[in-house]
Amino acid sequence: MYPHQREGFKFIWTNLARTIDNEKLKNDDHYGAGGCIISNDPKTGKTRLTIPFLQTYLDVFSHYREIIVAPSCLLLTWEEEIRKWNIGVPFHNLKSLELLGKLKSMLMPSTKLIGVGIQQRNIVKLYTWFKEKSILGISYNLFEKHVGGESKADVNIRKMMEDTESRIMGKFLRDISDLLVLDEGQTPRNHYCLIWKAFSEIQTHKRIIHLGTPF
């Protein structure tokens, strides 16, 4: 990493883990919530900075479940960068039809998974992310769709119409994630928009926000 990225890594670690003392790190719950905003010019390496942080955090806290929320087009960038740097942690992109690693060997005896829709694939990805050390990637639109953030009337309508898979995905995303990365974090612009309300539903206490424009 470049010097400014190493400095950024230290900044993120200090704000989320609070300490580099191994004994104190074993009792992570003691430090509660934590987070930070990374705000600098585009193409200065925010993704490259955050990937080794997520890898290191999983090395220390292997039970943590990390989610990256980003515009659909940027999820491909995250996927490419994680593959490029070969961090040894699977990245499950919910916008992709591809199944990785053990998922592919278990569920794809041939080159195609016949008869399984996108939502069913995503349930499998969510379950694998829950059970094994990995990173989950999801778009803002998909996150909003499954987590909610509607008015009470809209919630009642959705409960009558939504299927079991959607309820399962909403439960996972709301209650199970431990660390959330928001790429293009200015997307939830105010408390009136649905994506803002969706993020207010989740239980995650540790968050990293990427902004493409410096303050």
From TrEMBL:
Residues covered by the SNF2 N-terminal domain: 4-214
GO cellular component: nucleus
Gene3D superfamilies xrefs: Tandem AAA-ATPase domain (3.40.50.10810)
Record-linked Pfam families: SNF2-rel_dom
Signal sequence bounds: none
Intracellular or extracellular location(s): Nucleus
Keywords: ATP-binding, Helicase, Hydrolase, Nucleotide-binding, Nucleus
GO biological process assignments: gene silencing by siRNA-directed DNA methylation
GO molecular function: ATP binding; helicase activity
PANTHER family tied to this protein: SNF2 DOMAIN-CONTAINING PROTEIN CLASSY 2-RELATED (PTHR45821), SNF2 DOMAIN-CONTAINING PROTEIN CLASSY 4 (PTHR45821:SF5)
Protein's name according to its UniProt entry: SNF2 N-terminal domain-containing protein
Record organism: Crotalaria pallida
Higher taxonomy: Eukaryota, Viridiplantae, Streptophyta, Embryophyta, Tracheophyta
